[in-house]
Write a structure and sequence with these properties.
Elements: E1 13-18, H1 24-33, E2 37-40, H2 42-50, E3 56-57, H3 58-62, H4 77-84, H5 90-98, E4 106-110, H6 114-119, H7 124-129, H8 134-144, E5 150-152, H9 158-162, H10 171-176, H11 185-212, H12 216-224, H13 226-231, E6 248-253, E7 263-267, E8 282-285, H14 291-305, E9 312-317, E10 320-326, H15 330-340, H16 342-345, E11 348-352, H17 358-367, E12 370-375, H18 382-387, E13 393-396, E14 412-416, E15 419-423, E16 434-435, H19 443-456, E17 464-467, E18 472-476, H20 482-495, E19 504-507, H21 515-522, E20 527-530, H22 537-546, E21 550-553
Parallel strand pairs: 1-2, 1-4, 2-3, 4-5, 11-12, 12-13, 19-20, 20-21
Antiparallel strand pairs: 6-7, 8-13, 9-10, 9-11, 14-15, 16-21, 17-18, 17-19
Helix pairs in contact: 4-8, 8-11, 15-17, 20-21
Length: 561
C-alpha cells in the first residue's frame, strides 16, 4: 500500500454496532477519553449510555428512524458516504461537504449471530431474522476504503486500535490535534482482509443453509404454506446445490507429507469446533506438530472417540490403528494396545478417551519413543513428566463427548482433480446383528465382535481385525485382497507373540469367497463379524458352520480409502 500525505489517518468519529458486546464498553471509553465522537445503534448505544458515555444515535445522523424492526437503520448515504469517501479525493470531499456527510474513521461491527442461532436449532423464521444486512454492507464499505477507514469485526482486535490511541487528552485538545491516530496502513489492510473473510464466511454459512432447504420436501412445504415453512426446523440433512467452505490458517508447517512439499494447517472458526477436536487441542509440550503428526493424531482421536463405555487407548501409525484396547485401568489399556504391535507403535500417536494419569504417562515415556500423546485431560504431574522427553508432543483436547450440530451433520471431504467429494461420516452400527450360522456367539464373543467391528471402521481397506478380550491381537490394513489382509493380521499376531485362538474377526466388507474366512478360522478364530451381501454368502456360511464358527452380518460396511 502506498502511503499518502494523510498518513497516519486521524480518528475523529467511530461507529460501533455489535451483537457480541465483549470489550466494546472499554473500547468506547478509551475512544471517548481521547475526544472521539461515538455513533451507535440499538442495543449497543444503550450499553454505552449505561456506562455513562455520550453517544450519537445513527438515526440522528441519517435523519431517519430505525424502521421495520431494525431491518433498516444504517443503509443511508450519510453512513455509507462517511465510510466510502476518499479523504484525498477533492471531488469526494466536496460532495460530502455539499450533502453534509461527516467522515467515519473507525467502524466496529460484528454481525447478527446467524451461525449460533442455527446451531441452537431455531426455526426457519428465527434464523432468517438473524441474517444481517446492514452490518455486512457497512463492513464491506469500510474494508473497501481501508486506505482511509479502520474496520474491526472481532473483539480480539480492539487491542490493535487501543495501541494507537496514545495518552488520554481532553476533548478540546483532541479536536485541535485532529484526534488520535488510526492503526497504520499495514494494520488497516490486515483488518480489512479479516473483515472480508468474515463476511465471506457469513454469507457462505447462509448460502449453505439455504441450499440444504432446497430439497424436495422443504420446497414442497414452502410452496404449500409459508406459515408451515416458517415453523419447520431450520436445518435439513440434504446436500445443497453449492458448498462454501472457509478455514483460518492456524500455522505454517515445516513441510507436508514429505520434505519437498509445502504445507499449512487450517482450522474452522474457533466458535465452530467444540471440545474434542484436534483444532481445539492445547499443546503443552514438545516441538511443533508436523503435517503427518496432525493427520495421524486426528485418526487416533477419531478412533478413541468411538469408545465411551470404558477407558480406551488407541495407537496409530501412518493413519492406521496398530493397537487398540479397552480396560478399567488406563495403564493396562495402553499396555495391551502396545503389545498388539510393538514395532509399529514405535514413533506412533497414542490417544486416550479418559484423563491421562501419571502412572500411564510414565509407562509410555519409559517404554517407547512416541511422537504425540493426546487425551481429553491430564492428571497432576503428567505435563512435567512428559516434558522431560523434549520431543514428545502432549495435547489436551477437552471432552470427547459427541456434540450434535443443529446446522446438520459433519461432512467428510476428499479433494479430487477439479472437484471435491463430500459425504456423511461413517456412523455406528445400525440395528441388531444378524446371526447367520448355526452357532450364535457367546456373550464374550459378542463383546469382542462389536469391539473389533468398531476398530475396523478406522482401518484402511481391505481391513481384517483380530480381537480378544476387548483388545486387538492382529491388524491387517490396506491390502488389495481380503485374504492377504487376513494373513497379515495373523502374521502380526504371531510376531507379537499373541494368541489368536478364541479371537473374534472383523472384516470391513463382505468375504467375496470363503477363503479369507477359512484363513481366519485356521488361525484359531471362533467368531466372525462382516457386512454380508456377497453372492457367495451361502458358501461362506456353510464353511463357517463346518468349522463351528459363529458368524453375524451387520448389513453395513466400513470401506475406508
Amino acid at each position: 500500500m502506498t502511503s499518502s500525505p494523510l498518513d497516519p489517518r486521524p480518528l475523529r468519529r467511530a461507529l460501533l454496532s455489535v451483537s457480541d458486546k465483549t470489550g466494546v464498553v472499554a473500547l468506547a471509553q478509551a475512544l471517548a477519553a481521547r475526544g472521539v465522537t461515538l455513533l451507535s445503534t440499538g442495543g449497543t448505544a444503550q450499553a454505552l449510555r449505561d456506562a455513562g458515555l455520550t453517544v450519537t444515535d445513527v438515526a440522528s445522523v441519517t435523519g431517519f428512524p430505525e424502521i421495520m424492526e431494525g431491518r433498516v437503520k444504517t443503509l443511508h448515504p450519510n453512513v455509507h458516504g462517511g465510510l466510502l469517501a476518499k479523504r484525498d479525493a477533492p471531488t469526494h470531499m466536496a460532495q460530502a461537504d455539499e450533502h453534509g456527510i461527516a467522515m467515519i474513521d473507525l467502524l466496529v461491527v460484528n454481525l447478527y449471530p446467524f451461525e449460533a442461532t442455527l446451531r441452537a436449532g431455531a426455526d426457519t423464521a428465527t434464523v432468517i431474522e438473524n441474517i444481517d444486512v446492514g452490518g455486512p454492507a457497512m463492513i464491506r464499505a469500510a474494508a473497501k476504503n481501508h486506505a482511509n477507514v479502520t474496520v474491526v469485526v472481532d473483539p480480539a482486535d480492539y487491542a490493535v486500535v487501543l495501541a494507537n490511541l496514545g495518552a488520554a487528552q481532553d476533548a478540546t485538545d483532541a479536536t485541535e490535534a485532529q484526534g488520535p491516530a488510526q492503526p497504520d496502513a499495514a494494520a488497516r489492510r490486515r483488518l480489512a482482509h479479516k473483515a472480508f473473510a468474515r463476511t465471506a464466511a457469513y454469507d457462505g454459512a447462509i448460502s449453505n443453509w439455504l441450499g440444504t432447504l432446497l430439497d424436495a420436501a422443504a420446497s414442497e412445504a414452502m410452496a404449500s404454506s409459508a406459515a408451515v415453512a416458517d415453523a419447520a426446523p431450520a436445518q435439513a440433512t440434504s446436500f445443497g446445490e453449492t458448498l462454501t467452505l472457509q478455514w483460518r490458517k492456524a500455522q505454517d508447517l515445516r513441510y507436508g507429507e514429505n520434505p519437498h512439499q509445502a504445507a499449512a494447517f487450517y482450522v474452522a472458526r474457533a466458535s465452530d469446533h467444540p471440545d474434542g477436536t484436534l483444532a481445539g487441542a492445547r499443546q503443552l509440550s514438545g516441538k511443533a506438530l508436523s503435517y503427518n503428526n496432525i493427520a495421524d493424531s486426528d485418526a487416533a482421536l477419531a478412533c478413541v472417540r468411538a469408545f465411551t463405555a470404558a477407558p480406551a487407548c488407541v495407537i496409530v501409525k501412518h493413519a492406521n490403528p496398530c493397537g487398540v484396547a479397552l480396560n478399567p485401568s488406563l495403564a493396562e489399556a495402553y499396555d495391551r494396545a502396545f503389545r498388539t504391535d510393538p514395532e509399529s507403535a514405535f514413533g506412533g500417536i497414542i490417544a486416550f478417551n479418559r484423563a491421562l494419569d501419571l502412572a500411564t504417562a510414565q509407562a509410555i515415556i519409559e517404554r517407547q519413543f512416541v511422537e504425540v500423546i493426546i487425551a481429553p485431560d491430564i492428571d497432576e504431574g503428567v505435563a512435567q513428566a512428559v516434558a522431560r522427553k523434549k520431543n514428545v508432543r502432549l495435547l489436551v483436547c477437552g471432552s470427547l463427548d459427541d456434540a450434535t450440530d443443529p446446522s446438520g451433520p459433519p461432512r467428510d471431504l476428499k479433494p479430487v482433480s477439479g472437484g471435491l467429494l463430500v459425504q456423511d461420516p461413517d456412523g455406528p452400527l445400525h440395528g441388531d446383528l444378524n446371526v447367520v450360522t448355526k452357532r450364535a456367539p457367546s456373550e464374550r464373543e459378542h463383546a469382542d465382535l462389536l469391539f473389533a467391528w468398531t476398530v475396523a471402521k478406522f482401518v484402511k481397506s481391505n481391513a481384517i481385525i483380530y480381537a480378544r478380550d476387548l483388545a486387538t491381537v492382529g491388524v491387517g490394513a490396506g491390502q488389495m485382497s481380503r485374504i492377504n489382509a487376513s494373513r497379515i493380521a495373523a502374521l502380526k499376531a504371531e510376531m507379537a507373540g499373541l494368541e489368536i485362538k478364541g479371537a473374534a474377526v472383523a472384516s470391513d466388507a463382505f468375504f467375496p469367497f470363503a477363503d479369507g474366512m477359512i484363513a481366519a478360522a485356521d488361525e484359531g478364530a471362533t467368531c466372525i463379524i462382516q457386512p454380508g451381501g456377497s453372492m457367495r454368502d451361502d458358501e461362506v456360511i456353510e464353511a463357517a458352520d463346518a468349522r463351528d464358527l459363529a458368524m453375524v452380518f451387520t448389513s453395513m460396511r466400513h470401506f475406508r480409502h
